Amino acid sequence: MDWILNNLGTIIVAAVLAAAVGLIVFNFIRKKKKGQSTCGCGCADCPMKNKCH
Prior knowledge:
Number of domains: 1
Mean pLDDT: 86
Radius of gyration: 18 Å
Helix content: 55-70%
Number of strands: 0
Largest sheet: none
Number of helices: 3
Order of helices and strands: HHH
Shape: rod-shaped
């Protein structure tokens, strides 16, 4: 119990960062399933447009 209390700040920060990364990955997967671009821009001017889809 003392270890948890001594490292509570680190545990909270790690949990918040893990949640943020999880939400980003979830958003990428959801956009990919919908057929949307995951890079945040359109594909018309992208040099990799033939590689993504």
